[in-house]
Each structure stands twice: as structure tokens, then as C-alpha cells.
Amino acid sequence: MLTLDTNVSELRGIGAARAKEFALAGINTAGDLLTLYPRSYQFRGDTVKINMAETGDVVSVIATLEQNATERRSARGMAFVTAFAHDDTGSVEIVYFNMPWLTKSLTKGRTMRFYGRVIRTLYGLKMTNPVTEPVFDGANLRKVVPIYPLQGKLTQNVVSSAVAQVLSLCGGISDVLHPDIIKKYDLMHRSEAIKELHLPTDRFSLDRARHSLAFEELVIFQLALRRMKQGVVTIPAKPLKFAGSGIRLFFDALPYQLTGAQQRAVKDALDDMCKPVPMMRLVQGDVGSGKTVVAAAAIYFAVKNGGQAAMMAPTEILATQHYHSLTKMLSPFGIRVGLLIGSTKAKDKQLVKQGLADGSIDVVVGTHSLIQSDVVFDNLLLAVTDEQHRFGVMQRASLVGKSAEPYQAHTLVMSATPIPRTLSLILYGDLDVSIIDQMPPGRQPIVTYGYNSKKRGDAYNLIAAEIAAGHQAYIICPLVEEDDEGGKRAAETYAEQLGSSALGGIPTETVHGRLSPKEKEARMARFASGEAKILISTTVVEVGVDVPNATVIMIENAECFGLSQLHQLRGRVGRGSCQSYCLLMSDAGGANAKERMRVMCETSDGFAIAEADLRQRGPGDFFGERQSGELSFEFAGVSDVELIGTTAALVKDMPDGYITYAMDDAIETFFDRNKGNRMFN
Description:
By secondary structure, this protein is an alpha/beta fold. The protein has 22 helices and 22 strands. The strands form 4 sheets. A 7-stranded parallel β-sheet has the order 12-13-11-14-15-10-16, sandwiched between helices. The chain has a 6-stranded parallel β-sheet with strand order 17-22-21-18-20-19, sandwiched between helices. The chain has a 5-stranded mixed barrel with strand order 2-4-5-7-6. Helix 6 packs across helix 21 and helix 9 crosses helix 10. The two termini are 43 Å apart.
């Protein structure tokens, strides 16, 4: 009697050696086999006529052998079998290497299904080593064949045979979703869907199975987020009041009028802070859209309600910039702002910590230093986190947890990384979202040009002209060291090469990730002060440098970057009132690279660029290096936009009675699988 706990060693064809190979792959039981999901499929049932097969396509053709297969040898002595087959539209040559036994079965008049890649030669169509299956009355030719992930010495035949022996156990798999949900959304039962993954009936049924399991997975994810969020908000927040705060004075003192999007974001935040439930809000906006003033308004509101506020940033440079910005906006109202970063002198650190503890400092700006155990607040009412993707939920919670009992501080996080709107339900599922999708008036759009190496002189001349006019420039290189294979320019060698160009003799600084934090900060500071006119850097400047006098950025090997990252880099300029330029240098001739350059040159809308980036690169590469820290989904993906929205709406109003025991277990499993994810850390 097979059960889900039956050891794989008890299955036919699996001895001790193969059982050990399965164990190395994490498969010990029949139940483990059922959750070894195929990584891809071969759609062998979608046959085409021979004359319709395009070169390079992987296809199935049903054809009859014109003669017996023959064994031959190449000029180098390699043995191969060759045969010719035809249908009513044409013929194809079939070649097999290292398969001499096939001559016995490939005989004249037999009809076969050949599945493989077709190429066109001078002599006609040809298939090499296709999957070959005989066609006859009663033949059980599978239309869709699963391809499993393999490890060690395991083969597709061994894994497929083992899975086939345990498929009868699918009937014992319980549903995770409530029956009403399965019926309402026309989903497969879990047992049926898993069996369909391993033994697909056809494309339609396979797609429905994957849709059902993706739906289930996204529901579990949304419920996990809801549970985490509920756990955070069990502690009440102090509801703040507009009366007596003088918030109007703050807005009247600004030298500009807030955009409509900024006003909406401010209203969202202040309304949240007037509730007894802790605010958990994300302000998402493009570079230069004015998120900082939204945070400043919330900070002002918290302090004028008798509390303190903290702003945490990922780098010392960004924290220092926020410190100066907030001091300028808040000090006229008697609000005292402190700075706490790693490079702060020990004596000054102690004074700031003392001021936070006794309440003489109202606002502190800092890096991770703020979440150290010896940083204590007198009455923390608001915690602001900048660049949301650099911090996880638990890091934010560490700062929020420094609030005074019995209350929990309100939380406001900011991100200048535009992402598709529905996608934010996955990345920021524990937060309410305010989007700033307008730029302040007076900002000139950044003019973006695409260049190749033949036009490098023109690009350098433009940079030289901007510097001669009193401005500064960035040059971005993708690598620190020269890559001999790819020929990519490196930050360290680039500066030397400028000596013989139109930029020779101009004061230059070079920054990359291998520098010590202290040296990196010092070099950036020399650029920010205007001492250096050109900053040659890797992508460390993507976040954290604000130099309004910089009017041009040149990005080498632009094809190496995704659209969203190119847009982030472009946002380093255009911060002043003068016209700014982005120069994309690339010799890549591929369609994707050309499309990327076209999008960058035609639009400056970060959200439109993010949508194009997701379409072009797909969810797997959308986040670049950050992808390794993103969520682990088996069936769902960030491109399942409609499904994400549907499941989010379902979970938002889901009654507790729909939370089954199986769903509880699934939520815990999801948390376990994503322990390393930045959202849960």
C-alpha cells in the first residue's frame, strides 16, 4: 500500500543507489515526488506539416519513413544514423548521433512522430536527434510531456517513472482553499491540479492547473501579509490632532506650491496619523517628484503633537542630505534636528543619543545606527524609512519598536524606485501606498541621447561644454575592473583614458564599490562641493547623491542595465533649474538593446519605464541583483498582474471562517520558505 510517506526506495526500479540520488535532491518519500514539479513541458501533440516548419523551430511532425535507416560515419569517424521521412507536403532528413540501435526500428513504411528542432540546409529540412515515437492504432502518444529538474545522476526517464507510480496518491491531497472560493473562481481542486501538472491532458488543462495553483499561492501570500500586518498593528498608535498643530504654517512657509499628487500624499499620511491604528504607508514617486517634503510635513505634524520623529536612510550621504533638507524646513519652527551616522564623532553621537532620550532633540536622521539598542527615544511618534527596498519589515519594526509604551509609532516609508502599480501589491503588501505621479513645476525634462563609439567625441564635447558653462558631470561604468571578454569599460581605467580626450585635465574623482565607506564618502563629497567636475563611478551613485549643479550623465555600456536602473541613474541629473542631459553609450545591435534605448529617449515617466522593463526582461530579471532577495513563488509570478489584483481583493474582505486548517499550515510553510526574504526580515 503506497502512502505519501512511502520511501522512494520501495518503488519499482529504484534501488539503494537511486534512492540515494533522490535523497541528495531532497526527495525521500512519495509525497516529495508529487511536489517535484516539472520545470517545463514539451508540447509534442501540436504537430505541423513538414512544409510549414520554420528553421530553428522546435516542432512535432508525423511522417512516414521512405527507406530503411542506414548507419554511416563522418569524415572524422563519428558514427551516425540517417533516414528520410515524408508527409503529403514534403520530406525531412532525420539524423541520430551515437544511436546505432535505431536502424532496427527505423524501417521503410513505418510512421513516426518526430519532435525536435528543424534546420534548413542546402539539401532541405533536417532534424538532429529528435524524440522519435511510433504512430499506430492504439498508440498512447502523450500530447504534453513534463520535463523535470534533475540533479546528480537522475534522468528524465527515472524521475518520470517514479512519479507515474505515485500519481494515484493525488486523490488524498486536501484542498487549501475554501470550497466556496474554488467554486466561485472556477478553480481545479488541488489534487486534480497537481496530477495535471505531472500528467497533462492538453495545454488548456495544464494552464488551468497552473492558474489554480498560482491563485492558491497568491491567496496564501496575501493572507501571510495580512497576518503579519495584523500582528504589527495589535499595539495602538497615539492618534494625533490637527487642532493646535499649526500645520498650515508649515505649508505657508514653503517657497513653492505642492503639486496635486503631493497634496494627496500628505493628506493620506496626516489622516492616517489621526487614527488610533499605526500608519503603515509607502510614498512612492519618481526621482525629483518631491517625496521629502511629504515626509517633512508628517514629521512636523508629529513633533507639533508633542512627539519625536526619526528618518532612516540606507547611506550616510543620503542621511546627511536629508538632515540638511529637514533642518532647513523645520528649524524656523523651533524644531531641533540631529544627525546619527557611523562617521559621527563619538562625542557628538553621545550628545544626540542623550538629546533623544531626554526629548531635547525632536527629529533624528541616520542610517542603521538608529536601530542600535543604545538609541532610546523620549516619545517617538513617527518613523520614516527612505529607499524602502533597502530595508526589510523587521528592520523597520526595530525602529518603530523604540516608541514609548503603550503606543506604537506611525510608519512612513519612501521609495524612488517606480514599479508597476499592481506589482506593488507583492513588494509592498504590508503597506498602504500613495503614489506621487507629478513632477514639480519648473523642472525641465532631461534630454536623453543614444550614442555609439563612433560618436564618442560628440558626447565628450557636450560634457566639456557643460563643464565650461560651470556645471558638472557623471560618467557611469558597469564594472570596477576591465572585462577582457566583454570589453566593458571599468571605472579605474576609464579616468586614465580621458586624459587624451576633450575631457583631459578636468578635475575628476573615481568611485566604486571596492572603496572603503570612508573613502567613498570623501570622494563623493569632493564632487558634491564642486571641487571635482567629473565623477566616474559604478552604480553606487544610483541612490544617495544630490548635486543640483550636475547637468549631464553619461552611461557606458548602457545595454548592461535594465530600463528601471537606467532611469534611476538618469535621475542623478535634472535636479536644478538648468537643462540636463543623459547620454547612453552602447554599441549593442540587438533588438532588445535598441528598444531599451528608444524607450529611454522617448519618455521620462518612471512608471511607464517600469512597465516596459517588466515586459521586456520578464519578472526573473526585473529586479536585477535584488531579485535574489525577492519572494519565492512556485507557480505565481510578478507578471500575473490580473491574478495579483483578484487575490488581493479577495483576501481583503475574506471572513475568518474561510481560513481552513490546511490554509493555516500553508501560511506557516510560506513564512518558512521565505525566511531570507527582505520583506520578512
